[in-house]
């Protein structure tokens, strides 16, 4: 009997010890401290994940041992099949503040329920509710779920929170005395109001810039700022307070829709701003496809899906951000300094947005820096991005102004050149008319002398012949000047007929006199085909080439005219026509410049000429759709000019 009594007594002691032992998180004894931040409250806040969301308040009270202490602010990602419970024990016996506010700093939680049990175990204030899918019941009318706790009754109070949400389960819980809360709340609301006010101001600025500058990029930026602003209105909890008169689920729908719209426009705006479409066409198409998908997702919340698609929206947003970063890093070596300056803040924005996305998924721990990533990215969108947009617009406007100035200058030059050509043509026409009259008089006098001098001496006959050739030469120079003028003003309308180049060449040499005939050697095959051309123009070109060769060669050196059938680089059949001399030659650096109008090399300054001969040759050959060039001379003696003309019919250019 004594042993049985000892056993029963020991069991009673153990039972009382077990009942007296603290269960779950320790009791928070409130004293002089006025506020407990989410991190300061962690040692006293117990949490439990209710898989299947089956628990009721009686289950929570019956199993206090299920509540575990948290090491970090609670972050459970996106899961609709779970409910999150929190338990807090408070003792305000040593505190002068008896009304405390319990706040959940995430305004986008769907349904938050609170039970407050007094020291006597009775429910104080009944069931209270807040969230963006339910109507407020016993909660403060503030952006985030906030509940006032009356701790007047001495002893330990128990507070239970149940959170059920389809949004991100990022749940920072804080406790603050009512006087301190009332002092700090205006400052918090002021900061949020300033951020949202700045957002809508920038939206108005972007709309004004889009209308004033007529740039669609500002329309895109205005849509992005509006979507981002509406996102923060919903996330901060201002939406259902300001616009929807506390009527759910409009705030949740607007927030989910704004997130999808912001996610669709943001990366696409980066791509347009960085001109990545010019760098990577495939990436640009991918960004377009992603933007269209996200824009379609912005409509789903208004069809009853609410925020069900938000996790997939954020996944696609992260993929597009990563795509932008990959393109920027791949194109970085080829970017100019200004493009890199623009790419750096875009990379920073992509990083901040990605950190904020990973935070909502619960991958990144909710530290102070991580929580600030989203607001800081929004501030950068409002400041840095709009500055770069204006900078880009200013550069584009400056480039457009410079281009307009260049166009006006070019138009002025063209007009002055046209006036100069017209004056030149009038002068040439006048000189040609004035020269033709004395030439005709001299020619008539020469014919009279030849008729009167029936039996001239050899010396007089030679003089008559020299005067005739000089008159013929002067007539040809007038014709050449008139032909050059017609070529300049693009009024050549001569007919093209089958032309025998060999016969034409000999006719041209006859007009140069016996000295030229004795020095010029013509090489051509017997079966050389005829060419459709303007024989008179080609004779002008040949006369210039042969005359140059004779002038720039020593008197005892021959000039060779070589003709043959040849095709050009494209395989078009034609005739090759080369004039080769053994004079001072043409330097390699001047091989193209000799065809410019009025160009004369320094070593030819002592030889008479105006620098128009080869210019005229190229004009005539070009009108026949041919080519002319200076061929290299292997023995470094003399010059060789090659003309190539197509055999087929060629309309004048």
Automatic annotation (TrEMBL):
Output the Gene3D superfamilies linked to this UniProt entry. 1.10.287.130, 2.60.40.2380, Histidine kinase-like ATPase, C-terminal domain
Reaction equations catalysed: ATP + protein L-histidine = ADP + protein N-phospho-L-histidine
Pfam family example for this protein?
7TMR-DISM_7TM
Q: Where is the Histidine kinase domain?
A: 430-649
Domain of life according to the entry: Bacteria
Keywords from UniProt, A to Z, are: Membrane, Phosphoprotein, Signal, Transmembrane, Transmembrane helix
Identify the InterPro entries for this entry: 7TMR_DISM_rcpt_extracell_dom1, 7TMR_DISM_rcpt_extracell_dom2, HATPase_C_sf, HATPase_dom, His_kinase_dom, HisK_dim/P_dom, HisK_dim/P_sf, Sig_transdc_His_kin-like_C
Q: Which residues cross the membrane?
A: 189-212, 219-242, 254-271, 283-303, 309-329, 341-363, 369-390
Membrane keyword on record: yes
This one is known as histidine kinase
Q: Which organism is it from?
A: Sphaerotilus microaerophilus
Which lineage do the record's taxonomy fields give for this organism? Bacteria, Pseudomonadati, Pseudomonadota, Betaproteobacteria, Burkholderiales
């Amino acid at each position: 009997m004594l042993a049985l009594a000892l056993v029963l007594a020991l069991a009673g002691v153990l039972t009382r010890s077990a009942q007296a032992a603290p269960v779950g998180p320790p009791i928070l004894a409130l004293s002089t401290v006025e506020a407990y931040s989410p991190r300061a409250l962690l040692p006293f806040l117990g949490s439990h994940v209710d898989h299947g969301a089956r628990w009721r308040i009686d289950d929570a009270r019956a199993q206090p041992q299920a509540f575990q202490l948290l090491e970090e602010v609670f972050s459970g990602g996106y899961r609709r099949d779970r409910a999150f419970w929190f338990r807090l024990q408070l003792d305000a016996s040593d505190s002068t503040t008896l009304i405390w506010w319990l706040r959940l700093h995430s305004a986008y939680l769907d349904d938050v329920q609170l039970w407050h049990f007094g020291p006597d175990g009775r429910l104080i204030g009944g069931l209270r509710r807040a969230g963006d899918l339910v109507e407020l019941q016993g909660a403060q009318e503030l952006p985030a779920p906030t509940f006032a706790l009356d701790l007047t009754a001495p002893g330990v109070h128990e507070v239970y929170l149940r959170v059920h949400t389809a949004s991100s389960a990022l749940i920072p819980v804080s406790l603050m005395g009512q006087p301190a809360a009332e002092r700090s709340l205006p400052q918090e609301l002021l900061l949020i109001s300033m951020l949202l006010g700045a957002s809508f101001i920038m939206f108005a600025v972007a709309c004004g810039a889009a209308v004033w500058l007529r740039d669609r990029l500002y329309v895109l930026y205005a849509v992005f700022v509006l979507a981002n602003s509406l996102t923060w209105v919903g996330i901060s909890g201002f939406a259902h307070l300001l616009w929807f008169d506390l009527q759910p689920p409009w705030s949740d729908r607007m927030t989910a829709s704004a997130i999808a719209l912001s996610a669709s426009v943001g990366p696409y705006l980066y791509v347009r701003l960085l001109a990545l479409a010019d760098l990577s066409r495939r990436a640009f198409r991918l960004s377009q496809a992603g933007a269209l998908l996200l824009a379609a997702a912005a409509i789903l919340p208004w069809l009853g899906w609410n925020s069900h698609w938000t996790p997939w929206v954020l996944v696609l947003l992260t993929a597009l951000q990563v795509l932008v970063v990959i393109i920027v890093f791949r194109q970085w070596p080829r970017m100019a300094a200004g493009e890199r300056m623009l790419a750096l803040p875009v990379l920073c924005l992509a990083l901040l947005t990605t950190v904020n996305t990973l935070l909502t998924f619960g991958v990144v721990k909710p530290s102070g820096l991580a929580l600030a990533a989203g607001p800081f990215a929004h501030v950068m969108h409002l400041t840095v991005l709009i500055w770069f947009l204006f900078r880009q617009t200013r550069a584009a406007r400056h480039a457009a102004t410079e281009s307009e100035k260049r166009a006006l200058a070019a138009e002025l030059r063209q007009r002055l050149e046209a006036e100069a050509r017209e004056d030149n043509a009038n002068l040439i026409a006048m000189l040609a008319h004035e020269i033709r009259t004395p030439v005709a008089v001299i020619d008539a006098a020469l014919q009279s002398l030849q008729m009167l001098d029936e039996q001239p001496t050899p010396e007089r006959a030679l003089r008559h012949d020299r005067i005739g050739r000089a008159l013929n030469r002067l007539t040809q120079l007038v014709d050449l000047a008139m032909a050059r003028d017609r070529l300049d003003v693009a009024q050549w309308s001569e007919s093209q007929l089958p032309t025998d180049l060999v016969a034409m060449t000999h006719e041209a040499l006859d007009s140069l006199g016996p000295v030229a005939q004795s020095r010029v050697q013509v090489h051509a095959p017997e079966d050389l085909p005829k060419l459709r051309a303007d024989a008179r123009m080609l004779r002008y070109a040949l006369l210039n080439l042969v005359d140059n060769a004779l002038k720039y060669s020593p008197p005892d050196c021959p000039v060779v005219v070589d003709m043959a059938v040849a095709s050009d680089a494209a395989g078009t059949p034609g005739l090759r026509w080369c004039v080769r001399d053994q004079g001072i030659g043409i330097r390699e650096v001047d091989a193209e410049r000799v065809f410019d109008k009025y160009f004369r090399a320094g070593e030819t300054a002592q030889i008479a000429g105006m620098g128009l001969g080869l210019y005229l040759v190229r004009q005539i050959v070009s009108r026949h759709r041919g080519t002319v060039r200076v061929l290299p001379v292997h023995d470094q003696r003399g010059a060789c000019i090659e003309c190539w003309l197509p055999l087929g019919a060629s309309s004048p250019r």
